[in-house]
Each structure stands twice: as C-alpha cells, then as structure tokens.
Design a protein that fits this description.
The complex is a heterodimer of chains A (441) and B (251). Chain A has 441 residues and is an alpha+beta fold. Chain A is built from 13 helices and 19 strands. Chain B has 251 residues and is of the alpha/beta class. Classes of the chains: A alpha+beta (441), B alpha/beta (251). At the A-B interface, strand 5 of A face helix 2 of B.
C-alpha cells in the first residue's frame, strides 16, 4: 500500500520537460514524514512540489517521486498585532493575501503570480518588484519547519546554516513543512502607479536611478526593437496608497485556455505587433493612477493557463542577473543577441536588484540588473540563442535563476553560484530534481 | 459589530467542511468543530482561528454512533451560546465491491451515512424549529439520484438522507418556523475521499468551490442545491435514461 500514484500529468509551467512521476498528495501534516521517507528510499529519489509555477525542471523529478504539498495549506497562527504568520508550506500567496489583507497585512514579497506556495517561495527565495527595498522573500522568514527523508525534523531560524541552505535551496535540503514569516502592514488593497516610457536602454537605467522613492519598480522591454530603439520600453513603478478599501482579488479567472495554441500563434510578426501596440497604448497613459494590487502585481494571473499560448512544445524562460559593473553593457549585449535572432520574447522584464544580501546559499538575487524573457521552444534555434545569451552572462559575472531554467550546464550553474560547495553539505541524500540531476558534473 | 454567526460543523475535518468553515472564519464566525480525530480537529481549529474566526471550539465524539443526538447537539449549541447554522458534512464512501459481498460492511456504511446522519438531522430540525431560526445544511450526493452499480450502497444512504432533509425542509417551511433545511448534492469533488480516482476535466470541482456554494446555501436557496449547479442537468438526464439503455452502461 502506497500513497504514491504514477502519473504523466505533472508538467512545469514551461511545459517542455515531460516524464512519469510517482505522486502523493498528503491531506494532513503528519503524513509528510512517512511520505518523505518512502520517496527518499526510491531509486529516483523524491522532491516536494507546490503549485508548479517554476518554468523548467527544478520542480520536476522525472522517474522519481513527488510530494504535492498544495493540499497542506493550513494556518498555524497569525498574530495580527505583529504581522507574524505561521502556516503550512502549501499555503499559496494568493490565499495568504485573502486571509491577511482584510486584517491589514500583505506578503512582504510577491512574485509575478499569486499561485506560489510558501514552500516554493522559500525554496526559490523569490523576489518581487520591491527587491531594492525589501530584498528577497527569505529575508522575511523567521522560522522554518524542515523534514528530512531520514525522518529527522528541524526547526530552523535564520542563524542556522541549514536555514541558509534551505532558503533558495530548491527543495533539496528536506521537505519544507511550514514557514513562519513577517508580513508587511498595508492600509488597503490599492497602489498609486505610473508607467514611464523610455526610448532606449540608457533611459531605463536613468529612470531606475531616479525611482528611489518608489517601493515597487519593474520595466517591460520591447525586445523586438534593435538599433537606436534597442531596449525601449515602459518603466512601471508604484507605492501602496493610504486607501482603506481592502477588497481582495477575485478568485475568478477568465476560462483557462482549453488547449494549446497552434505553433504559429506566436511568431516574429505577432510578437512585433503585440509589443509595438503595447508600447504605443501604454505610452499615452501618462501620470499616476490608482490601481488594485492584482493587476499591478499579478497581471498574467487574469489569464488562466497563459502558458499554453506557446503551443504544445512549450517554452523556455530565461532569467539572469548581471552585477553592477557589467549590468548596462551586458543587458545591451543580451538584447542585441535577441533582436538579431528574431525570436523576440512575448514579455521581457527588466529590473534592478538592490544591494540587500539574500539569505540563501543558492539565492538567485544579487545586486545588479535582472532580465527575464520567454522564448517559444523551437528546438535547436532556441537552444542556440540561449547558449549565446549564456556566454554574455558568464562574461559579465552573472548567473541564471534555476526556477526558470530547464537546460543549463553544470559549468554554467557552478560558475554563477560560488557557495555551491557549502550548499552540497546540507543536501538531503533522498531528494533530487530534474534540474539537480542535470547540473551534477 | 454584529454578533458573530455561530456554527456547528458535524464532520469538521472533511474537505468540504473545512472549505466551508474557512468562509465562515473569514466572516469572524464562532465555530464548533465536531469529529472523531482530536489532532485533526485541533489542526483545523488553528487554521480557522488564523483565518479570522472569532473563536473555535472542538468537540471530540464519534458522530457515526450518536448516543442521544438531541442531548449531544444541545450541549454543542450551549457551548456556542446558541446556534445559527448547523452543517452536517461527514460521510464514508466505502468500497462498493467489498460491501456488496460483506453485508456487515454494508450495514456499517449505511449506519454511518444514513442512520447516524438522520439522527443528527432530526435533532437539529427540532432544535432549530424550537428556536424559530437557523439553517440546517446537509451534504448529500448526486450518487443518491439514481442507483448505479458502481456505488449504490453509498448512494442509497445519501438518497435516504436526501429524502429526510427534503422532508425536514418541507416541515420547517409549512410551519413558518423561520428555520430552514438545505440539501447540497456535490458532484465530483477533488478531495482525499476521491483520492483514488483519476481527476481533471470540467466535471471536477475543488472543495473550495463547493464550500462557497455550501456557505451561500446556509443563507438562502434550496431546498436541494447541486454543487456546482450543472449537476442538476446531468442528473436529470441520468434519471430519465430508460433502464434498457441504462443497464448496458457500466456507470
């Protein structure tokens, strides 16, 4: 008798990697220990997963076992005086907002989707539009409950080395059972925001430097443009408003795409049309406006299953960070490569990371500029372009984000993460992932 | 600030009960969770407290074997200082094939899903009628709408329970009691109870979606509510298929 069932249904958000997994979905916290032990004892090892919004294979373990944690989403305690909340690792940030916002709190850091669990947020040490002021998610975590496949349980605080390995540790140091974190007090659900167009890459860095007064900043780049317009885009920035309305996002979404879009739906022409239209429309809306947090932080969540726009072959995400000395030239070189390839990205996002240190040994964010792109999977053409981008990132002393990656080499990974050898000492020998198996040299 | 809604949940650790309770918790309700597993009840109680419930009580008992349902329910109501809504949400799917061969097992399934549940419903009806307000909300099943070879023992119990609740709703309405009874008939719900079945597709609903329907049903609607609504039409068709055709399908 086993709680694990074999299925080919589990795919990551990019939908490129396919494989059979043995999956268990615990309903009660006390089931995790036995599941972790059983998964750890199987030849393919185990991995805990949340809502599978990682793009590549860091949240997959083909041939191995998965423990789906999303059903474990109970709150343990929420102190509305201090904003400290402790909950099962499967609680999503969207659900967390639903219960915390009416009482005047918001997650300290949110990524571009609310369909992320607390465990996933810790395991990838996620960042958001407020990185320059708030740092990564892990900086706000006060305690962690970690179950190892040998049955041991560890209650970790930030000073523990195992805490530093677990934050950003891609779920490889144990199964994160619960997370305690400090939420951010907010007045209401609304922000003041504005979009500032910029005509080239220097324009981006100028506006970024002049946006110190904004808690949330991000830019969208029209990467179909080359030449003098290379790096043109829209800089979006905002601050929480003193607005007492605390309306939580609607759980309703537009119907999910029922099937894959045909492969020609996103091509060089439609990409150019989309990006140019977006630039033209948004550039006309000048000045500040009042916006609800949902479209501001989670614009793509309104479209259920937007990842299927890329067709049956799926897509690759590419996110790198380049440290300050190389950032400007590096981002320029990346955009030149992309413009030349004609494989432009549907949504290219550029943001500066601040100097606040990330707490994890394998945390992705570091000071510099981070560029995130998605590319339809066109086989070797796409992989060739991504390899050329890798070369630029390596030369600039940068690194890639494992949560987005499905293909980098061991050397590329090791190059970007100097603390990798310290991290390895904390690995749970019963856990692994598609990503982890690939980057072992 | 109005007085918080006071709710008794019989079978509070079921997935649908938990999902429903979270809506009540978000409104600041005062909840009493009844069930068998002390540890699970306390886990759920902490969750609901964290989600905004003004207070959560835990009552450990074997709902499947009430000793005196009226007295036991009165004790629970007293712990809340009175009750507004009573939700009955426990049930055991059981193994149909096994229960067909093992009549004692079938008896136990019927005892839990019908005999015990009926006692709680009758006790609740009396309590609500006497206080002249409040709602009894009972989780039935579409399995009770037509006997099918795959789960007719569970289905028979839920059919019986459904008839009972309909009758209670009729009685409470006729007497202008101010109290109500509602039967919820969920279709396929993604819960641990159905963990062994292949899932996905448009017919499967989340416990959260059904919980939202249950919460609304406590305030208005009924007396029979399918969850989600489209099951009413699916079951309408299933009920009218002539037996000679129906008997050729392994439904």
């Amino acid at each position: 008798m086993t709680a694990f069932q074999t299925t080919g249904d589990v795919v990551s958000w990019g939908r490129v990697t396919r494989g059979l997994h043995r999956v268990a979905r615990p309903a009660w916290p006390e089931q995790v220990a036995a599941l972790a032990a059983e998964a750890g004892a199987t030849p393919g090892k185990g991995l805990a997963i949340g809502l599978s919004r990682s793009y590549g294979d860091s949240g997959l373990n083909p041939g191995g076992a998965l423990i789906g944690m999303a059903g474990l989403d109970r709150v343990h305690a929420f102190d509305t005086a201090t904003g400290i909340l402790c909950a099962d690792a499967g609680l999503s940030l969207g659900a967390l907002i639903g219960l915390a916002l009416p009482r005047g709190f918001f997650p300290p850091v949110v990524p571009g989707t609310r369909f992320v669990t607390l465990g996933g947020a810790v395991a990838n040490d996620i960042h958001g539009k407020n990185h320059h002021g708030a740092g990564t998610f892990g900086r706000h975590v006060t305690r962690l409950g970690l179950r190892r496949t040998d049955g041991s349980f560890h209650e970790l605080v930030p000073s523990d080395p195992l805490f530093g390995a677990t934050v950003g540790g891609l779920g490889l140091t144990g199964v994160i059972e619960w997370v305690e974190l400090r939420l951010t007090p907010v007045q209401g659900a609304w922000l003041d925001a504005e979009d500032v167009p910029f005509g080239d890459l220097d324009g981006f860095f100028d506006i970024a430097a002049a946006s110190e007064g904004f808690a949330h900043t991000v830019a969208w780049i029209d990467c179909t443009q080359g030449g003098a317009s290379l790096g043109r885009g829209l800089f979006s920035r905002g601050n929480w408003r003193a607005d007492p309305d605390r309306t939580v996002h609607s759980a309703k979404r537009t119907p999910a795409l029922p099937l894959d879009a045909p492969s020609f739906a996103l091509n060089a022409l439609t990409l150019k049309a989309f990006n140019s239209t977006r630039y033209a429309l948004k550039s006309q809306r000048a000045g500040m406006w009042r916006t609800h947090y949902a479209p501001f932080f989670f614009p793509l969540d309104a479209i259920g299953g937007w990842n299927r726009l890329y067709g049956a072959r799926g897509f690759y995400q590419y996110q790198c960070v380049l440290p300050p000395p190389a950032a400007r030239d590096g981002v320029r070189a990346l955009l030149q490569q992309i413009a030349r390839s004609g494989q432009g990205s549907f949504l290219a996002v550029l943001k500066t990371f601040g100097p606040l240190p990330s707490p994890g040994m394998l945390s992705f964010p570091r000071e510099g500029a981070t560029l995130a792109l998605d590319f339809a999977n066109k086989g070797d053409d796409t992989l060739g372009l991504l390899a050329r981008l890798d070369a630029v990132v390596r030369e600039g002393g940068g690194r890639l984000y494992p949560a987005k990656d499905g293909r980098i080499s061991a050397a590329m990974f090791e190059n970007g993460y100097p603390n990798l050898s310290s991290f390895r000492r904390h690995l749970d020998p019963g856990l692994s992932s598609g990503f982890w198996k690939r980057v072992q040299s | 600030m109005t007085t918080p809604c006071r709710v008794i949940i019989l079978g509070a650790t079921s997935a649908i009960a938990q999902a429903t309770a979270r809506f009540y918790a978000g409104e600041g309700a005062h909840l009493l969770l009844a069930g068998r597993n002390t540890q699970h009840l306390h886990t759920v109680a902490a969750d609901l407290t964290g989600r905004g419930a003004s207070a959560v009580e835990v009552e450990v008992l074997d709902l499947g074997a009430p000793t005196d349902a009226s007295a036991q329910l009165a004790v629970m109501a007293a712990r809340l200082g009175g009750v507004d809504d009573i939700l009955l949400a426990y049930g055991v799917l059981g193994d149909q094939t096994q229960a067909e061969r093992d009549v004692a097992l079938a008896r136990d399934l019927l005892a839990v899903n019908f005999t015990s549940a009926a006692q709680w419903c009758l006790a609740a009806a009396n309590l609500l009628e006497d206080q002249r307000r409040g709602s009894l909300v009972v989780i039935g099943s579409v399995a009770g709408d037509r006997g099918r070879q795959s789960n007719f023992i569970y289905g028979a119990a839920k059919a019986g329970l459904g008839t009972l609740v309909q009758g209670i709703a009729h009685r409470l309405a006729l007497r202008n009691s101010g109290a109500r009874a509602v039967l919820i008939k969920p279709g396929f719900v993604d819960t641990p109870m159905t963990g062994h079945l292949p899932k996905g597709g448009p017919l499967w609903a989340s416990a959260d979606a059904v919980g939202a329907i249950v919460r609304k049903a406590a305030d208005a609607g009924g007396p029979v509510i399918y969850a989600p609504f489209f099951w009413r039409f699916i079951l309408l068709i299933i009920r009218v298929i002539p037996a000679p055709i129906f008997h050729k399908r392994p439904l």
